[in-house]
């Protein structure tokens, strides 16, 4: 088994708006498992396919961190199965209606009915994306 290299972590951050003076002070190292995985026994990774969630910042090829132990709440982005087919969508629960909402206007919401055989497989807690090839 190979050892994971220690990668520097600058906790001060970098400005995403107006530039700020460079801090340059190394605070620690960052373990992405510790950051992204709260419940290791209930967490899995899955690759997103398609473009139905681009408005939520989820693009084709992104890696989703999914926590099966997280409470599924209204507005959460979840992994669901409908008649055995898996999808990632935003959950909407209103009055007596439950729908899976895409984040791309090219797609229609999916109403959850008893006939849809819907099962929920966890809440997306992080998105890991590659910015350059």
In short:
This protein is 4% helix and 35% strand. It is mainly beta. The protein has a domain at 38-128: Umud Fragment, subunit A (Ribbon).
Tally of contiguous helical segments: 1
**Which architecture of the domain at 38-128 per CATH?**
Ribbon
Total number of strands: 9
Low-confidence stretches at least 5 residues in length (pLDDT < 50)? none
- How large is the radius of gyration? 18 Å
Strand order of the largest sheet: 3-4-9-5-6-7-8
Largest sheet geometry: 7 strands, antiparallel
Rounded mean pLDDT score = 88
The CATH class of the domain at 38-128: Mainly Beta
Task: Look up the CATH topology of the domain at 38-128.
Answer: Umud Fragment, subunit A
């Amino acid at each position: 088994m190979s050892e994971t290299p220690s990668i520097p972590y600058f906790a001060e951050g970098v400005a995403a708006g107006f530039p700020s003076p460079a801090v340059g002070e190394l605070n620690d190292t960052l373990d992405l498992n510790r950051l992204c995985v709260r419940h290791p026994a209930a967490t899995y990774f899955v690759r997103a396919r398609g473009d139905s969630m681009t408005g939520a910042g989820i693009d084709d090829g992104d890696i989703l961190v999914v926590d099966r132990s997280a409470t599924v709440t209204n507005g959460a982005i979840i992994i669901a199965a409908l008649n055995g087919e898996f999808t990632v969508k935003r959950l909407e629960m209103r009055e007596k209606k439950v729908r899976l909402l895409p984040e791309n206007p090219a797609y229609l919401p999916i109403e959850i009915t008893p006939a849809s055989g819907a099962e929920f497989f966890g809440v997306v807690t992080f998105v890991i994306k590659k910015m350059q090839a």
